[in-house]
Structures are given as structure tokens and as C-alpha cells.
Amino acid sequence: MSGAVVVIAVLDGGSGADLARRFTAAGAAGVLIADQHVGVAEDLATELDRPGCPVVGVGGDIRRPSDVAALVDTAEKHLGPIDLFCVAGPGGERIVSLADLPDHLDLERLAELLALVGEAIGEVVPPQRGPVGSTAAAA
């Protein structure tokens, strides 16, 4: 993880704090933390920011393609090309390596990234139950 640029996207019920601390301690080149609650991301970024590993906190919901595009643009502008994209949800964490994607942001890369993020969300969000009060029909 040393020298990696990392984006950590936090879903409701998740926490990126431990993940961000692990990456900064391991020598990441930079970390962008995105949370739906911008104050949370900014506070954590202020706490962890240090010379050699800038940490940026922004608001964003990775379930929206436009927010993912904005996160990628912000990370690349302030930190450089992204190496790892992490999703922290209520059911855990998922880390996606972007090594196989082209270095520049374009529509093809964004589409590939969105597919990977969608898979990651599915892995860290607990399965949804049916509506309260619904029952299966008796045979």
C-alpha cells in the first residue's frame, strides 16, 4: 500500500476511519475520503492529513454515477491517479485495485469503475429483507 493513492467511499452505516488510518500508517501517497455526511469526511481528513500523505475529505454518494465521476476527478486533481478504490459499508469493506484500468479518466474507465463499485457495494451492504409485514403466500 506504500505509495498508493486511495479513495475511500463510505456508505450509510459504514465507517472509513479505520481503513483511512491503516492506509495512512502504511505509507499511502494520498487518501480521499468520501462520505454522504461531508463534515465527517472533512474532520477525518483534517485529523489524518500529514506531509507526504495528503488526505482530502469530500461529500459524495457513490451510488450516484455523477458523484463517482466527481470523486475520481477530485482525487486525480489533488492526489494523482487512483490505485485503490475502497467501499466501507455496514457489512464491511471492499477494496478494488484499479491497476487494470487506463490511467486517464474517460467514459470507458468510468463505466468500468462504476461496475466495480456496484459489485463492491453489493459485497458490503447487508441483504435487504422484504417489506415489514410481508409474508410468503401459503401453498
String of helices and strands: EHEHEHEEH
* Quantity of strands, as a count: 5
* Total count of helical runs of at least 4 residues: 4
Q: Helix amount, in percent?
A: 25-40%
- Low confidence ranges: 130-139
Q: Largest sheet, if any? A: 5 strands, mixed
Question: Could you report the average pLDDT, rounded to the nearest whole number?
Answer: 81
Computed structural class: alpha/beta
- What is the end-to-end distance? 54 Å
* Computed CA radius of gyration, to the nearest angstrom: 16 Å
Task: Record the SSE blueprint.
Elements: E1 5-10, H1 17-25, E2 30-35, H2 38-48, E3 55-59, H3 65-78, E4 84-89, E5 92-97, H4 107-124
Parallel strand pairs: 1-2, 1-4, 2-3
Antiparallel strand pairs: 4-5
Structure explained in plain terms:
This protein has 139 residues and is an alpha/beta fold. It is built from 4 helices and 5 strands; from the N terminus they run βαβαβαββα. The chain is globular. Residues 130-139 have low confidence and may be disordered.
